[in-house]
Amino acid sequence: MVSANQKAVLGSMLIDEKCVALVLSRVAADDFLDTNCRILFLAIRRLYNGNKAVDPVTVLAEVAGEHGEGLYDLVKTCMEETPTAANIEQYIPLLREEARVARAQALAMRLMDTKTSTQVRDIVSQLDTLMVDKPGVKFTSMEDGLGRFLDRQKEKVEYLPWGLYDLNSRLKLRQGKFGILGGYPSDGKTALALMMAWEQAKTLRVGFFSLETDDDTIMDRLVARVGLISMGKIKNQALEQEDYDTVAALSSGFISNKLEIVDAVGMTANDIISYSCYRKYDVIYIDYVQLVRPTSGRNRTEEISGISMALHNGARANRMTVIALSQLTRPERTGGKIRAPRMRDLRESGQLEQDADAILLLYKENQDDPNSRRVLNLEKNKEGELGTMYLYFDGATQRFSRHMNQEPPPARKEPENRQMQFEELPGADPDCPF
């Protein structure tokens, strides 16, 4: 008899294709104790790896002629008895625990028939391994690690381009990394993220998950930036003939660009990672992390911590680069001036600061001046140097560029504190009678 856990996991994969990537990353074929369930799982995996649709029709077609109507009835039962795919996070550990217990019981039966202490030690060793087994866990010996190191040195490494020369030379991110782009509201972090995403999508598959801005507005910004067309013209629908000619000339570049805009309202971190695996993105942007729907946590800090860890783990497990935009806490004024933000200002969670491989902070040099040059501070960089870059932002065309002045602002001169000399003390003048 097929267990409820096996039916729930398979049913979730058949009901909601977004669950497939998540299940494949955590479940092995051997976790399905029933032979027919294992056959269905392997069929789903073949379809997914072949970039084909996964649904009841395609899965049954994949196994047609080989296993008869038994699988049709199983598919029907799995879908009918699975109440929702939303609980897939709970179904997976139940399935794996069931498989682990069954393997342990099988080893215990073998233990009953052993004749020598050597056989006993072998089975006990297998039981120990079973108790700590996790799918995808691997180890690297020093010999293997050194060999791979030497091989990597012979290969040409392609790091992510950022569209800014100074940042390209400092921030070397590869697959499987988690980055944060923090900023105050209206300082341009979405525009900067779109610029980076556009540059990377010339050669890589990039998903831009928007939780705040609709896709039409994002397209307006992209057209303004790429075509150097004023956002005022676009918003007022006042394009002139030369603007239409510019858009027509750029159309092939837009069509060939591999950037996709995803409406992510209501999505959890695991939803985002699963969908990214399904679309086979190399890089994803999340605008912004505080709007991702939490799945657990007793307070807001715990919720954001859970989201941060899910994105960090998802990036590593699926070898994709994840860049999450983050709001900063309200700036503090000191002596009438606003203090430059630091990593600790990432809103609602120190976990973001801990999980990130790189952290960029974008802000106006003078918060009271909307035309102030922008400061892009590479505050954390696990695999490279830190540094500060100064940018010019053209709001009309949503473009960032290197500011001609890369000098930091002059340090504020503090009043001089010096010790008073003896001759300056009252009564120290010999000509003074007092």
Description:
The protein is of the alpha/beta class and 434 residues long. Helix content is 46%, strand content 14%. The chain has 16 helices and eleven strands. Helix 1 crosses helix 5, helix 2 crosses helix 14 (269-279) and helix 14 packs parallel to helix 15. The longest helix has 25 residues, at 88-112. The chain is globular, with a radius of gyration of 29 Å. The mean pLDDT is 82.
List the helices and strands and how they pair.
Elements: H1 4-15, H2 18-26, H3 35-49, H4 56-62, H5 69-81, H6 88-112, H7 117-132, H8 142-154, H9 165-170, E1 178-183, H10 189-200, E2 206-210, H11 215-227, H12 231-235, H13 241-256, E3 259-263, H14 269-279, E4 283-287, H15 300-318, E5 321-327, E6 333-334, E7 337-338, H16 350-355, E8 358-364, E9 374-381, E10 387-394, E11 399-402
Parallel strand pairs: 1-5, 1-8, 2-3, 2-4, 4-5
Antiparallel strand pairs: 6-7, 8-9, 9-10, 10-11
Helix pairs in contact: 1-2, 1-3, 1-5, 1-6, 2-14, 3-4, 6-7, 10-11, 14-15
Total helix count?
A: 16
Gap between N and C termini? 110 Å
Point out poorly predicted stretches.
Answer: none
User: Structural class per helix/strand content?
Assistant: alpha/beta
| Radius of gyration over all CA atoms, rounded | 29 Å
Percent of residues in helical segments?
40-55%
Into which percentage range does the β-strand content fall? 5-15%
Q: Give me the side-by-side strand order of the main sheet.
A: 3-2-4-5-1-8-9-10-11
Would you report the number of β strands? Answer: 11
Q: Overall mean pLDDT score?
A: 82
Q: Any idea what the shape is?
A: globular
Report the order of strands and helices. Answer: HHHHHHHHHEHEHHHEHEHEEEHEEEE
Largest beta-sheet details: 9 strands, mixed
